[in-house]
Structure formats: C-alpha cells, structure tokens
Amino acid sequence: MKKLALTTLLAAGILLSGCQAPGEQSPEVTSVQTQAALQTAAEPELPPTLAEEPERFTLAEYPCTTDNLRIDGNDPWLFDFRYSAACGFGKDGTYRDAEMYYGLKGELSSTQLSYWFYDYDLGGVTVKSAQLINDSSSRDILLKEKAITINTKELDAGLYYIKAELSDGSSAFLAFYTDGGDSMFCTVSGDKDSAKLHTERRKRLYDLIELFEVKPGNSYETMRLTYPRYPYDESYRCDTDLWIQLSSEITRPDWTDGRKLLTIYDWLSDNLAYDNYMADVLGERREVHYGDWTGTYNMYSTHVGVCWDFANVLITMCRAQKIPAVSIENDGASHMWVAVYIGNEWYEIDPTADVNDVVDGEDMTVITKAENPERYLGYFSLVPNGYGAQDMLTINHMLWTAERDSSGYCLRRPKIEYTTDSAGKIIMIL
Predict the structure, then answer these.
(1) Does one domain contain both 159 and 123?
(2) Considering the domain boundaries, does residue 37 fall inside one?
(3) Parallel, antiparallel, or unpaired for β 273-275 and 357-359?
(4) Are 6 and 309 in contact, with CB atoms under 8 Å apart?
(5) Partner residues linked to 417 by β-bridges
C-alpha cells in the first residue's frame, strides 16, 4: 500500500464531481447521474437496515441532497464524511465515537472513554500490560475486564494513547484527544497539533449532523464520485454505470448487506492491481502525465489503480446495492478507505489492504504479485508498520487472525460472514 498525494491530484485539476480535462468548460451535466440513481431519487426505498430508525441517528426528510446543506454558500465537504466516519448523535443529544486497533477497542461518549481488549488470546498472543500515556506522564490501566471506563472530564487537555504490550513483543495503540470537554478518537493523527485539528473537524461534523439531521440514507447517491476521468462525451459509457452493473452481477437481491459487502470486497481483492508506477514514479494520474483523456486509463478496463480508485469503486458498488457507503481520508490525505453502514453502525473497510497484484512499470498489462500474498506490506500485522499506526482499524481486521505465516504476517479466517442480532450489532459467523 503506497501513499497517494491527494494534493497532487487537486493541483492537476482532477475534479471530484466532473469529467472534464483541465482548462475545459464544464459541460451542462458535470455530475454523472446514472439511471439507477435517478430512479432512487424519484422513488426512494429504504434498505432493510434503515427500515426502522437507527439507534444513533435521528430521522430526516428523505432524500436530503447536498444542495440543501450549503452553509453561507460554502461547499458542504463535511457531509461527504471524507475526513472521518461519524457514529453520530444519540436521542439524548450526546455523541458516540468508536474506534479499534488489533486487539483493542474503545468507545467515547460525551463524558467517558470505555475500552476493552478482544481476541487477546487468539493464536497464543496475549496482552501483558497496558498504559495510558500522554506528553508528560503514563500510568498502568486495567486489563481483561470489559467496558473499563475513564472519566475524560478529569483529564488535562491533550493527546493520549492507550498502549497495550503484547506477549509476542508487539504493541497495540488507540489514541484520543480531549480538550477538557469533548473527546474524539484520533489514531489517524500523528501528533498533538494534527490531533487537535482532527478533533475540531469531527466536532464540527457532528454539529452539522445534528443540525441537519443527516442520516445514512443521504449517502446513496452515486453522483459525487471521481469517475469517469475523461471529458464528458455521450459516446462513452460511464465507468460508474459499469461498476453498478457488476455489483448486481456478482450479488443476489436476497443476500444480507454483509454478504453483499464481502462478496464485492473479495471480487475487488481478486481482480484489481495496485499501481506502484503511478504512486512511486509519476506522482500524478496517468492520464494527466500522458495527456490522454480518451478513457484509455479507466479502471474498469485496466483494473489498475490506487487507494483513491479502489475506495470509490467499493463505494459505487455498495451504494448500487443500497448499502450506504462514504469515503474517509487519513489526516495527511495520503490514504483513502471506506465506511459502510451495516447493522445500524458505521464500519470501516479498506479495499486497498487485500489487493495483492501490483503494476510496477508503464505497461499496465504487466501485473505481478506482491512479495507476500497474505499481507501486502503487512498492513494488518500486529507490529505497527507506519500505516496501521496512523489509520483507523477496519473490518479487514475482523477478517484476519493473530495466527502468523512463515514471514510473520497474519492469516485470514477461512470463512466469515456478517449478520446482526436483535440489537442491530454485527455478529461474525466463521
């Protein structure tokens, strides 16, 4: 998994909602709205997960478009959930914020942090000790008990880490920032300043969610995506249409959302290749570098891309199957992954993590396997590797065990599917 410089893309003129090349006039239709999307807008149907009011969201008029969410004329980028996945507000007006790292999970409310360790003895790896650490101090905290709580109102403002030392010599981390009032998880942030900025953004996001009563149903649109990447031309069939069609070809209508999600995810893992050449050599989109805007480099044809591409494809296919999905970027905008709404909860999933094929040169037809077919760059190994220490944990972690291969990487569970219990919580079926 390589880092994708989003700023480079923006500087190169790649538009999130349009299809034109730099310098061209915007066409009359700058957003691609598919037939499926138009039908959804005309006759909105709530999927099974939204048939009843989600526990953590208030009801809103449906559908709610981004045009209704402009504030002082500014583009409501926060409503795309691009910078963080929001768990949302409860009926009592308090927020809930959840995050996990391998073996360690936490949940923040308005007044306290609850944390617990899970699968701590899976594969013989156990938690030896844990500490709460900030800039100036550290103290031991309890292990094994579930839902251990810390009153965040009693903590000084700053960045804190829960650090668990594991029996194999590795560590697990969970970071949160508190300003003496509200607290937010910020494992995506590397230092106090970026954690403070991340917290401010998330608090503003929650405020806007409450103000406009935003709910997951507002995330069905397939318009605000990066595809296609060539000038608008009716003679071309939009990439988005093709991905939507594929989502119906590889799933069945009677499947659960969880099964659809994992089927789509596994298809992407098996059929896509990561573009090392673009990420490491070009530093910009291939079509920008070569000046080719004919659609030659569309990912539906090439099956080659980077995290930005993979995330948008997964979002497109999930939304086509009535699964709310949004994109997330880490603090430095160097990596993008996805949040999906399953069982009345937002869960994060990273389609880049399991893509093992790579392209290292200019010829996109020359595809090779990554060095380790089980874990590309060891993204989800227990040892922090530069990515896992910065990015939030995703559903991917639930797909993997603490059992190691000969190279020290975690192995995937042989079979896994998701369903929900009566309270709407996800249950893993092995």
Answers:
(1) yes
(2) no
(3) parallel
(4) no
(5) 429
Both tokens assigned to 279 = 């990420």
Q: Which pLDDT does position 248 carry in this prediction?
A: 92
Cβ contacts of 89 within 8 Å, gap of 6 or more: 56, 57, 58, 95, 96, 206, 209, 210
- Single out the residue of 193, 216, 201, 156 nearest to residue 340, CA to CA: 216
Indicate which CATH number applies to the domain containing 104: 2.60.40
Cβ 353 vs Cβ 396: under 8 Å:
yes
Query: Among the three residues 161, 191, 212, which one is the final residue of a domain in this structure?
Result: 212
Looking at the DSSP bridge assignments, the partners of residue 116 are 105
Domain of 185? Answer: 97-212
Cβ–Cβ < 8 Å for 243, 316: yes
CB 105 within 8 A of CB 146: no
Q: Are residues 252 and 377 in the same domain?
A: yes
Type of residue at 329: E
Is 386 domain-assigned? yes
pLDDT at 249: 92
d(CA 380, CA 404): 11
Is 185 found in the same domain as 229? no
**Residue 2 backbone dihedrals phi, psi, to 5 degrees:** -105, 160
Give the C-alpha separation, 69 to 67, whole Å: 5
φ, ψ dihedrals at 88, nearest 5°: 100, -175
Mapping DSSP onto H, E and C, the string for 83-117 reads CCCCCCECCCCCECEEEEECCEEEEECCCEEEEEE
Can the peptide bond before residue 228 be classed as cis, meaning omega within 30 degrees of 0?
yes
The residue from 212, 245, 262 where one domain ends is: 212
CB atoms within 10 A of CB 188: 21
What CA–CA distances, in Å, run from 71 to 66, 211, 371? 10, 11, 48
Position 249 in a domain: yes
**Is residue 47, in this structure, part of any structural domain at all?**
no
Q: Reduced to 3 states, what is the DSSP secondary structure of residue 183?
A: strand
Residues 6 or more apart in contact with residue 11 via CB below 8 angstroms? none
Q: Which residues in the chain come in under a pLDDT of 70? A: 1-105, 110, 116-126, 142-148, 168, 170, 180-181, 187-190, 198, 201-239, 278-297, 329-334, 343-345, 370-430
pLDDT of res. 370: 61
State the total domains in the chain. 2
**Sequence-ordered alpha helix ranges (H) in 225-377:** 239-249, 257-271, 276-277, 286-290, 299-302, 307-320
Specify the DSSP class assigned to residue 393. Answer: P
Tokens 């392209």, residue located: 359
